[in-house]
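Suppose a classmate hands you a notebook page containing two proteins, each written out with its sequence and a corresponding row of structure tokens. How would you begin to make sense of it? This section walks through that situation. The first entry is reproduced here exactly as it would appear on such a page.
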Amino acid sequence: MSRRNWILCGAALALLLVGVIQAEQKRSSYAPVVITEDFDAIVQRMSEAKPEIEKKHVALLEERYDLSDSPAQGVTMSRGKAVQGGVRVKLPDGVSSWQELAAMSPEQIKAKGLWPKGFLPLPHPNHPEGGMVFPKFHINEIKKQTGRDLTRFDLDFDLPDHLLPEYPPPIYLTTRTDLGDVSQGKVITLDNYFETFNGILNPKQLEGLRLLVTPFPQQQFNATDDRRSLRPSEGVTCFDCHVNGHSNSTTHLVGDIRPQEFRHRLDTPTLRGVNVQRLFGSQRALKSIEDFTEFEQRAAYFDGDPVIATKKGVNILERGSQVHFMSEFMSILDFPPAPKLNILGTLDPTKATAQEMHGQKIFFEKGRCAVCHIPPYYTDNLMHNFQNERFFKPHMYNGRMASGDGPIKTFPLRGIKDSPPYMHDGRLLTLEDTVEFHNIVLGTKLTEQDKKDLVAFLRCL
């Protein structure tokens, strides 16, 4: 071959390599299906990277929050776990109080860079990677009961246990309010669901519950070479996140946004009270619990990618029976008792304190909370956009792009003290944090006493 031909071949090869590199860098809506790296090499690479990734994320949490174990005096969740108190989001440098910050306009806060970092979207523990991450206490319980291991070799859950819902949470049924907590203090799994609920549920509800505690393949937990469990996995159950029909704050990323840096971290919401809701998914606005159930199984378990779902073992539910049975059980999950509320969902003045009554007045009037959170369940079944981007400039941190959240569904506030952390991504750790956040976003100019009283009212719901 002549020197000229060698040069031409070399140039062609260079162009080909450039094309390959460009193709690799090009954004895609799809996850890679064919994994070219050996699984053992993946485990070694990601395990070695894990300490530095977690160190970086812990630094972000500590920069944003006071993560200490500081319970509110005399306030517990339904089964007795202490409710954490106090504002945990740290004020930005140069601001002496929340009152000072609330007195500024959105334009001033944005221009001076004073939007608290704890009010920015909370990134996933490893945002570029994403995926389901379970709290250690749930991993241990499921392994003890069923032998399934929900440990990821590349990542651990990030928030301290004292800032999460109580475990296991109680189960209340709209159909059998006389029974109180029917969970008997257990985490309901495939091992014990029948003995616990046989004779309480009808056959359809019992079958629906069985499906809710049956493991199916999921993005990180399956049998393929791009899983994140050391051994091939049976998968996860609906109740691995929505434990006992409530929540253990398991996190992952929403499946309906691309590219990766714009995807929202998801704080698992409770299923209590889904019978009174008309929208499902924090932003998807699915119109029925049946739609949500089917969507989760077909694609959301796989980051919203039906192509990768086909590879990993998608579970196609039959709409007329299986989806209906699952939905029928979920639709009888009730809110926890609220002994200070009357049948209209507001405070009974003979049972509430003066502080709680004043907090209710703030909620309905000065605080403007009831514009969206309407009793008796404290939701309007709509979506609202707070336009938080008024307060900060878009920027990237830990793989997450801080930008507008867009419209978010109005979650019910009944039983809210049992469901920390707050907001759709869990960025607010306490009810005090949520009051400070909304005070600034809504411009309500609440006094310190107003805010304390409002929190006292919220704890009654």
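The notebook's second entry, a different protein, reads as follows.
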Amino acid sequence: MKGVLAAAALGFLFTMFGTPLAIRLLVRRGYGQFIRDDGPSAHHTKRGTPTMGGAVIIVATLIAYFGSHLLTSHHFTASGMLVLALMTGLGFVGFMDDWLKVSRQRSLGLRARTKIAGQSLVAVGFAILGLRFPDEHGLTPVSLHFSVVRDTSISLPVVLVIVWVFLMIAATSNGVNLTDGLDGLATGTSVMTFAAYILIGVWEFGQGCWVNPGPKCYDVRDPLDLAVVAAALMGACFGFLWWNASPAKIFMGDTGSLALGGALSGLAITSRTQGLLALLGGLFVIITLSVILQVGYFKLTRGKRIFRMAPLQHHFELIGWGEVTIVIRFWIIAGLCVASGLGLFYGAWVSA
């Protein structure tokens, strides 16, 4: 538990006091956000706000994780390192996308195919490496079994596991990316979801089959270290939120949204809670579905729309809701999803 607390504190302190330095550096270099003309008019005042702030979150998370291990003298684990590598790899893809946007002063960065190719390379690498590195109990970071709140009896071939892991990572990273449209919305939602994974990791460690054997125990590799990773991410997002909340002094950009989405999916996969992620990250799911519905309905009806604009948060902007009102209400929805997910996780353990 000392490692969890240390990681959360270090992540928070680094972004809290390091983000202003990043803001000054980005302003000096002119790396400001480009705003689309077809978006809500209120967003035009945000033009030029420093972006790529997700790099601060990534660096803070890495410092917090490694610093926590140095302070507690605990060993690094394969599961923790793989989740961090997934976060960093997707963050690099997002950084290239952001850099092209600010350098060209256009809202278009990487081409869709190039972006998907980058995400695929990182995700497939994570899946392949995750099926290696068994511990003394024979557990690997990535399981061959499909999981909801723990591994089920559904076993998949290696190829299908790799495809499924890729789909999860792509869906989650793009879901967080779509949610990152209002000041503090994705950051605050991520704080709550990572906090849930701290509790899940600590609980799985305490109820691990090598600690507390029985019908309710969990077969998860390195659950406590996954809690340390989640704590580092939560602390880093919490400190960044101070500067990212309305009116935002800095945006995380695709650098941060892809990295956070990758970290969430990595935690879900390695903690054997793949299905549960859809509920814990319920707000990300709702916002992603709003885009899918909007695009599908537009094509089927040849130009008609369900929402005034997608993703969903911009629909509410266009019908007159204030930005802060939308963010707070969406945070409430996110909190309810996280609470429901944790309730389901605990309920499944009680009834196991």
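A careful reader of the second entry would note: The chain has twelve helices and two strands.
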